[in-house]
Amino acid sequence: MKIQKPPRLSRAFGRSSPASLCEPFSVTTTFAGDRCTIVAVAGDIDLATVAILVECAETALKAGGVLVVDLAEVTFCSGAGLRALRRVQRRADEEAVPLAWVVRTPAMGRLLRETGAAGFSCHRDRAGALAAVG
Fold first, then answer.
1. Is residue 77 part of a domain?
2. CB of 11 within 8 A of CB of 46?
3. What is the CATH classification number for the domain harbouring 39?
4. How far apart are CA 82 and CA 25, in angstroms?
5. Can you tell me the distance from the alpha carbon of 57 to that of 67, in angstroms, rounded to the nearest whole number?
């Protein structure tokens, strides 16, 4: 599933130059057999986009196997976005699905570490994340 347009409630809506405020939001889910699922997120995670992210992540969790959520291309994460990420982490814990996060930007790494979001297993690339969760 891929969505390439900022929804109505995003930071870019109603601005003369949406591209200057945020990147187009997209979530790409890749199922690698029944063993691994990669959910790659790009753009802003905010109130307008969290539902899409959670829906894709929950679909991936239902598929079972290992889940890798790639946040390497995330440019902004609001409080609603952080709550959505925590929700995905809780659901993975409840369903005993191994979960790893790919985080490349220092800001996103700090956000996950400093907000007390225990359980976030962050890695610099997909290979490291996949190696960590088996």
1. yes
2. yes
3. 3.30.750.24
4. 16
5. 8
* 87 located within any domain: yes
Number of domains within the chain:
1
Residue 132 is predicted with a pLDDT of 86
Instruction: Write the CB contacts of 108 (distance below 8 Å, at least 6 apart in sequence).
Output: 71, 74, 77
- List the pLDDT tens digit at each of the 134 positions of the chain: 444 444 545 554 444 444 445 567 899 998 877 788 999 999 989 988 999 999 999 999 998 889 999 999 998 899 999 999 989 989 998 999 999 999 998 888 888 777 755 567 788 998 898 888 87
- Using the Cα atoms of residue 84, residue 46, residue 78 and residue 37 in order, give the sign of their dihedral: positive
d(CA 88, CA 92): 6
Residue 122 neighbours by CB distance under 10 Å? 18
- Which range of residues forms the domain containing residue 124? 21-133
Is 6 part of a structural domain of the chain? no
Does the residue 86 lie in any domain? yes
Q: What is the pLDDT of residue 112?
A: 79
